[in-house]
Amino acid sequence: MEEKKPHARAALLFGLFGIFVALVCGVLFGWIGGSVAFLFGLIAFGLGRQSRKRTEKEKGKGGIATGVIAILFAVGVSLTLIFGAGKIGEIAEQKGFPLIAKHVRALSEGIVGLMIEIDKENEGLAKAHAELQELKKK
Question: Which of these, 21, 49, 63, 132, has the minimum number of CB atoms within 10 Å of its CB?
């Protein structure tokens, strides 16, 4: 019968949850969500390392990898929201990373474009609601 490896499974789950929190809560709640995701990433990394030591380097790779990814996403999302995507794109281009600068600008423009579309839809809904209220009065 195979021995269960709870640390490896917990590390992987913490890492996956950290990635989810970084992407969703980091965008929705800013640096607070990013810092929570950072903590989940650290926990996943620590549990993964502990699992690797206990199982003679057989288990724990998934926890370490997802923990590192969660940490990177958390830091990236937090910095982007704190300093603004435009500033990070400028810094990346100055330091010689044009591909990163291009992706950060695309992300920034995509979010701004989405917000503009939502504002337009809200204005249209407000006009339709006002017209409906006028019709109800008649």
Answer: 132
